[in-house]
Amino acid sequence: MRGFIMFAQQETIHPSIISPAHEIGSYEALWMRHPSVNRVADIFKRFNHALPSVVAHEEGVQLEEIEQTKSKVNSLMPLRSFSALFYDDFEYPRRLKDAKYPVEVLYYRGILDLLSSRSVSVVGSRKASEEGIKRARKVAKILVENGLTVISGLAKGIDTAAHQTAIEMGGKTIAVIGTPLNTVYPKPNQQLQDEIAQNHLLVSQVPFYRYSLHSFQSNRFFFPERNKTMSALSEATVIVEASETSGSLIQAKAALEQGRKLFILKSCFEKGLDWPEKFLAQGAIKLNDGSELIQYLNDHGPTKVAKN
Amino acid sequence: MDQPKWRRTDESTHLYHFPNHQEFYLYYGRIYTSGLGYSHSCTNRLILNLKKSPHASEPELHYKALAIQKFAEEVISLFSHFKPESSFTLVPMPPSKAKSHLDYDDRLEQVAAIVASQLTNVSVLPILLTCQSSEGYHTNSISRNPNEIYKLMGIDENCKPCDQEGKILAVIDDVLTSGAHFSAAQRHLQETFPESRIIGIFWAKAESFEV
Question: Is 80 exceeded by the pLDDT of residue B31?
Fold first, then answer.
């Protein structure tokens, strides 16, 4: 193996240079051993966010296992068709480190530059009312008109409306999905997801291989995790419409914990629900019709600076 | 915090004009998104500043100088991961314009000089020349053909050293796109120094996906 000899000749043994394919293989292999967000996060914290290959080595994962996992990933989605950011590489978004369990590897496809743009999440129910869809469109329109990127989760309902409006208006959008990059949920959003991966930005923290071995049900926990990541990536989150059990409320909670602004549309307060008042008491901002959103974003300074 | 980590090309990398890149070691730090008409990321701004014309306004040249300095500092951080007993010769990729041209830009030579001034095991050898000026690489896709680029490039016989034995030749360039320029540079260097090992160091890799 000529490559290996060269490696030995110019690099020190300590692997601190990223070979993306090898790191992806290592990371996905670690996920097979520690199949939960908290457990993976804990290990990486213990090793001070070293590269996945370093952590895998420390955890006794054999090179062969890494190679096998890598080729599994490659067969699920060709390694050349997507990219990944790693904790402490040059492009890893600093604001992601505000999350309680920051992802070590963030997969993406599309225009990476958008991740550095000013962006606001627009989220809400999958089973949205007609009024809710209209309101989501209005908020997305305001963001686009002011040059902001619309972030959402590509779910049915509010999310879909937010992405579609951004695209129709010639704006920019980022989808943070709760499935791996090679999977679409819900299915009717295939075209929208492709469009975003091509001309906008599609990101996911979900490991391909682990996901491929489990049922949709047992992979469901990735959806709320995605909301925490989405919040960390955005300057603020706007909740358009949500029931008491909506995944959007996970994002609302994460936004406040991460020092992000949380906006709740006034209409949410008129449905006899408990959550709007609860978040309002914790620092959320009530929006009358969305038009004051930009004023709030600009007046009250940028996102709170990361603690770490 | 530790210095951000550099990357190297591997099987996940597709270089249209240099498919055998895995036989070499091509290092890059940042990820550059080109041709957007807008720029939000730190990387995009740095690369655009680095590439500013040598005739740009005073403030623009100030940012160009800052970008040159930052590029050099980050390359120095890359070398901290290499064995200190290895010797490296930095070979700046020649710019699109020949030395006699009004728009000749020696930014890569400047970066290499700063790096070499800080590290005892690194020297600079500006041995690659542009014999015939072309449009900026990014403006002309025909100029990406490695054979064409090879013909436009040459070896500066005046600067040819007697001994490169045991040294690793590291071609330094700002953005790795299709690998065409590296391919041409590597061919010239290998012909001149058949015994030398050649690697590439790029500040950023332009993102491209297989469709």
Answer: yes
Distance CA A292, CA A290 (A): 5
Residue A173: both structure tokens together: 């959008």
Asked if B199 and A10 come within 8 Å (Cβ–Cβ), the reply is: yes
Beta pairing partners, B154: B129
Q: Which residue has the tokens 């590509």?
A: A154
Q: pTM for this one? A: 0.94
Q: What strand order describes the sheet that includes B7-8?
A: B7-8, B25-32, B197-206, B167-176, B87-92, B122-124
- Of the pLDDT bands very low, low, confident and very high (cuts 50, 70, 90), residue B34 is confident
pLDDT at position B157, please? Answer: 86
Determine the Cα–Cα distance for residues A151 and A254; give it in Å rounded to an integer: 15
Name the residue among B5, B12, B41 with its Cβ closest to that of A79: B12
Render pLDDT for B3-25 as a digit per residue (tens, 0 to 9). Answer: 899 999 999 999 999 999 999 99
Q: Looking at residues B55-70, what average pLDDT do you find?
A: 97
Q: How confident is the model at residue A9 (pLDDT cuts 50, 70, 90)?
A: low
| Contact status, residue A175 vs residue A203, Cβ threshold 8 Å | yes
Q: What is each CA distance from A149 to A137, A234, B174, in whole angstroms?
A: 14, 9, 29
- What the block records as the tokens of B36 is 């957007």
Query: A106: helix, coil or strand?
Result: strand
A18 and B5: CB-CB below 8 Å?
yes
Tell me if B137 sits within 8 A of B97, measured CB to CB: no
A91/B30 CB distance under 8 A: yes
- Select from A20, A79, A90 the Cβ nearest to the Cβ of B43: A90
Burial group, residue A267, by CB count within 10 angstroms (0-12, 13-18, 19+): middle
- B74: which chain A residues are within 8 Å (Cβ-Cβ)? 90
Q: Residue B145: helix, strand or coil by DSSP?
A: coil
pLDDT digits (tens, 9 = 90+) for A105-151: 999 999 999 999 999 999 999 999 999 999 999 999 999 999 999 99
Whole-number Å distance between alpha carbons of B96 and B90: 18
